[in-house]
Design the sequence.
């Protein structure tokens, strides 16, 4: 699309720019995407609106904490009191969830299958088993007869009794449940002399005290019970045994005493019916016969007391259900763990390698390939727009004409990329390392722009200079600009008067070896009231990111700009020789990060290979891993969170957190012949720029983990696009080396993770369905995060229990096998992915620190849900405790930050240039109407004066196309060539340029002046004055001004309706 003023002819010798020509622009991007925007997370509560359900719930939960009591404890403000109540409520909910997990893990199985009903070698000694050698049963419990006793009980034959056999009939029975019953079985006396009698008059209780007192015989080592199998009931020696409700009854002496049926005795009839059953291997189970008849139910307990010999070593229904639940739970948990492992491995081996390949040429979509957005610096010539004639054309303009090669897909063009570095209190070494690593990336220097933002006038602890001074000293400032720029206003993310902030924009280059990378340095210096205060201009990392996001969003939509935005636009255009709308990608890094040379290229390859990718990150490694034990325990944690966590999430295209120290986002994405704003989408920018956060949930989202919150916003607004992880792209960063700093950092990360996952779990249209969906993965991750302390305690309990067990079967060892498998499986992942054995040693260091990761850090974080400070993470010299950039101070005056469209700023600048030139010509000709340099212009109305007051001296006096100086040379810079049409030497404009042409008639000639033209003479009136501004809007959009209300900034513009 052409961005030329109306009236520019395309015929040879055609007319030039008509006087009064209007600016025109192409189609305005008004509908970024047809996906319905999700509901905002920050609804402002109305004054008369009733309290939300969450607030009511928190007040009910903490009803015991009355306001006077809280004031006595130092909590005075109502918002702080409410935050404390919400924190306590969240802790109660986490305790409830942890209790449920503990109950389902331990308690539920104990209820279904009590200890006395459990089967297996831990509870039973099986009849005739090898383990039962020397063990014999009395009243269902086993005793060890191998302890060197001198005598056995009277009537006991050691060799004739099988291991685990019953010898209960050698002692009298205690049968309190049989007193009121009249059946022969209830009145049976096992010590009757007719059937062998008993040699003793004392009974044997369950504690076995009598056995030890009289025979020095102790119960078996684990107090196991005598167990029988169903099939063993068919043995000939057990022909008089039967079962009632799992209890094995020995009826040998009863059948000897009553060899024939007793008429009229119902219990005797049942006993003989069961014993004469045709299927003895079925167990001779009399349970149904006794419990189906009311007359026999009372006799069941009596029969067990009278004839009990042991128990059936088979699972009861409750134990069967408990075992089924345990195996299903283990299958689900193990399935999730194994599937995460397998999918992460597949991603690392196959998917990531495919994404990292150099893309085919037909997949590279750049701004240059779009006819609606392509920009080249051209100038209107005598009959055509000549791309190379800008240097000699006074009416130079930026035209959005596409190049044939780009449309045809001839040459693969690189994506213009912003390299954003956010600084705070880092030292020179860290800053230099980061910037040098970005300059050294394998990417063309003319396609990347270093975008450094210093968050206030900050001097880090241990630094001798402020961070802005350090950054400025690393740059080679462009001589076209003043070495001390004018601060420009913008609207910051803060409360009260701090919403008005100002920033200086330094433009220049960063030299590294033989490379010269364009660089923009933004120094937030604060408003007028902050000059004498510490940390002037500091507004936080989110505000630094929003400077970039707001700028490119306004450029994309041709929205109204702040003075800072306009300053950025002009200086970026000067440095890069393209307008900022050509940029498509932003790489965000922290100022203590070192990026590997190939990382930027690999990330760009991913962007080109998959147009649905809207954001991605690389692997972050630790630079100071051996500095202390605190850094050592973090090495494997960083590794596993990337290769296992993010690798698994990348299969679904839904990485839930792109780390702010090293991540990349699309500014906008290609969609057919149009562009879709991504991170510059107005809804994302507006929600991310919330400066009034009231609830605890909102503060945990915005104030503690801005990186994760930005990822959450992206997934909520673009659920069908992808957030990916690229393991081949690597950076190194410095991590906390002191435990108190680690504690503060993880407090912020854990709390931010919980609150962001709460938002993401509600997004229904993420990838997948049911258990195979990203939503289910997020839910599992949320539950796993909040139950970390409980899981740690349960794991320790299980380890203690397993250490006390003697394993006799493989089934007993299953829990231990699973625990070892889950803990050591990452070692397999290490061997498959990195093949670096050193990480296995880091893994064991991490395992030793599991109580720190899974218990200490989460508990500390949960109890500090209402702490929104950064704590010990970043220390600044002279910083007071509790001081924060978000603290409200005064009232914001919106009139201090004017908002105007780009063309309004540009027209004001051009009018000022024309007035200056006109005044110079009149002064040179001795006109009485010539005004002094500092006097107000007679041609400037009030509205134009207001516009000009918003422009700094550089903006009014400098030609940002990089050709001429519009005013006196700035301090510390050399003079530049004069403007076109201003021949001869001038003390104001400097010596003339030998390459400048002269105006000819209605156009500009790039050759020698015509005979009728006077070199150095004034420009033709038909040209509208020298140095016509680039007559295009930042977004490459055209709109004809056919009516009085259709001018720039009119109310009917698409963006003004947002």
Sequence:
């Amino acid at each position: 699309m052409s961005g030329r003023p109306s009236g520019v002819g395309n015929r040879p010798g055609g007319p030039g720019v008509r006087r009064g020509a209007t600016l025109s622009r192409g189609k305005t991007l008004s509908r970024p995407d047809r996906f319905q925007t999700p509901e905002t997370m920050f609804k402002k509560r109305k004054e008369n609106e009733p309290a939300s359900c969450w607030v009511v719930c928190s007040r009910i939960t903490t009803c015991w904490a009355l306001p006077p009591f809280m004031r006595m404890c130092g909590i005075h403000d109502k918002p702080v009191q409410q935050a404390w109540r919400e924190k306590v409520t969240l802790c109660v909910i986490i305790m409830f969830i942890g209790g449920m997990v503990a109950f389902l893990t331990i308690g539920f199985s104990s209820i279904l299958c009590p200890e006395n009903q459990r089967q297996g070698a831990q509870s039973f000694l099986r009849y005739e088993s090898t383990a039962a050698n020397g063990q014999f049963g009395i009243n269902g419990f086993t005793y060890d007869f191998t302890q060197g006793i001198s005598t056995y009980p009277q009537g006991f034959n050691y060799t004739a009794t099988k291991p685990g056999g019953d010898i209960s009939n050698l002692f009298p029975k205690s049968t309190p449940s049989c007193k009121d019953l009249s059946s022969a079985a209830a009145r049976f006396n096992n010590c009757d002399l007719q059937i062998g009698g008993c040699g003793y008059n004392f009974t044997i209780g369950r504690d076995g005290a009598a056995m030890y007192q009289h025979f020095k015989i102790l119960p078996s080592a684990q107090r196991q019970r005598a167990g029988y199998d169903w099939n063993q009931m068919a043995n000939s020696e057990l022909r008089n045994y039967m079962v009632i409700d799992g209890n094995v009854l020995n009826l040998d002496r009863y059948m000897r005493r009553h060899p024939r049926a007793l008429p009229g005795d119902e219990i005797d009839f049942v006993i003989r019916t069961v014993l004469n059953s045709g299927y003895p291997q079925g167990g001779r189970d009399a349970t149904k016969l006794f419990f189906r008849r009311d007359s026999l139910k009372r006799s069941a307990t009596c029969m067990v007391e009278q004839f009990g010999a042991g128990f059936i070593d088979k699972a009861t229904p409750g134990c069967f259900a408990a075992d089924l639940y345990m195996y299903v739970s283990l299958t689900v948990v193990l399935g999730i763990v194994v599937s995460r492992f397998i999918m992460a491995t597949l991603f690392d081996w196959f998917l990531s390698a495919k994404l990292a390949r150099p893309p085919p040429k037909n997949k590279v979509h750049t701004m240059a390939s779009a006819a609606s957005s392509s920009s080249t610096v051209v100038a209107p010539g005598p009959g055509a727009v000549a791309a190379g004639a800008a240097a000699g054309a006074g009416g130079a303009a930026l035209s959005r004409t596409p190049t044939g090669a780009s449309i045809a897909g001839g040459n693969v063009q690189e994506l213009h990329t912003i390299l954003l570095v956010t600084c705070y209190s880092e030292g020179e070494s860290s800053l230099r390392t980061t910037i040098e690593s970005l300059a050294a990336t394998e990417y063309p220097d003319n396609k990347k722009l270093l975008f450094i933002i210093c968050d206030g006038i900050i001097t880090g602890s241990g630094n001798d200079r402020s961070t802005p001074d350090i950054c400025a000293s690393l740059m080679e400032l462009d001589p076209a600009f003043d070495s001390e720029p004018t601060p420009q206003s913008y609207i910051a993310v803060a409360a009260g008067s701090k919403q008005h902030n100002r920033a200086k924009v330094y433009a220049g280059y960063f030299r590294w070896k033989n490379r010269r990378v364009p660089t923009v340095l933004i120094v937030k210096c604060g408003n007028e009231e902050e000059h004498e205060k510490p940390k002037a201009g500091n507004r936080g990392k989110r505000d630094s990111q929003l400077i970039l996001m707001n700028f490119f969003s306004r450029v994309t939509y041709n929205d109204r700009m702040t003075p800072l935005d306009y300053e950025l636009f002009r200086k970026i255009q000067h440095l890069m020789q393209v307008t900022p709308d050509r940029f498509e990608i932003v790489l965000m890094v922290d100022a203590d990060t070192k990026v590997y040379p190939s990382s930027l290229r690999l990330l760009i390859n991913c962007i080109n290979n998959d147009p649905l990718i809207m954001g991605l990150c690389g692997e972050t490694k630790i630079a100071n891993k051996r500095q202390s034990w605190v850094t050592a325990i973090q090495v494997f944690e960083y590794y596993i969170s990337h290769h296992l966590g993010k690798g698994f999430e990348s299969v679904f295209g839904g990485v839930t957190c792109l780390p702010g120290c090293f991540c990349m986002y699309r500014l906008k994405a290609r969609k057919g012949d149009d562009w879709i704003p991504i991170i510059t989408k107005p809804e994302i920018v507006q929600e991310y720029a919330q400066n009034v956060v009231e609830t605890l949930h909102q503060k945990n989202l915005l104030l503690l983990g801005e990186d994760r919150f930005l990822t959450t916003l992206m997934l909520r607004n673009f659920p069908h696009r992808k957030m990916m992880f690229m393991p081949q792209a690597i950076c190194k960063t410095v991590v906390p080396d002191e435990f108190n700093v680690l504690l503060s950092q993880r407090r912020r990360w854990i709390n931010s993770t919980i609150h962001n996952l709460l938002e993401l779990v509600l997004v229904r249209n993420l990838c997948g369905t049911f258990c195979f969906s990203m939503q289910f993965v997020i839910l599992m991750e949320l539950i796993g995060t909040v139950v970390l302390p409980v899981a740690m305690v349960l794991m320790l309990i299980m380890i203690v229990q397993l250490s006390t067990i003697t394993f006799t079967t493989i089934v007993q060892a299953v829990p231990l096998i699973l625990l070892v498998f889950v803990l050591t499986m990452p070692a397999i992942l290490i061997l498959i992915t990195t093949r670096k054995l050193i990480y296995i040693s880091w893994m064991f260091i991490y395992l030793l620190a599991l109580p720190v990761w899974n218990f200490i850090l989460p508990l500390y974080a949960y109890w500090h849900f209402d702490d929104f400070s950064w704590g010990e993470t970043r220390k600044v010299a002279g910083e007071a405790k509790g001081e924060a950039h978000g603290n409200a101070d005064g009232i914001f005056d919106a009139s201090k930050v004017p908002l105007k469209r780009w063309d309004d700023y540009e027209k004001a600048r051009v009018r000022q240039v024309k007035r200056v030139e006109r005044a110079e010509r009149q002064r040179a000709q001795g006109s009485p109407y010539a005004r002094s340099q500092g006097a107000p212009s007679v041609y400037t109305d009030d509205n134009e004066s207001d516009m000009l007051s918003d422009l700094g001296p550089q903006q009014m006096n400098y030609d940002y196309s990089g050709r001429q100086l519009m005013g006196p040379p700035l301090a510390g810079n050399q003079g530049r060539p004069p403007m076109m049409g201003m021949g001869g030497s001038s003390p104001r404009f400097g010596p003339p340029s030998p390459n400048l042409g002269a105006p000819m008639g209605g156009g500009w000639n790039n050759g020698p002046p015509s005979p009728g033209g006077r070199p150095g003479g004034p420009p033709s009136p038909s040209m509208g004055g020298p140095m016509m501004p680039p007559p295009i809007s930042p977004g490459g959009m055209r709109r004809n001004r056919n009516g009085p209300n259709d001018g720039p900034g009119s109310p009917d513009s698409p963006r003004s309706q947002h």
Q: What stands out?
A: The first strand starts at residue 124 and ends at 126. DSSP finds 28 helices and 28 strands in the chain.
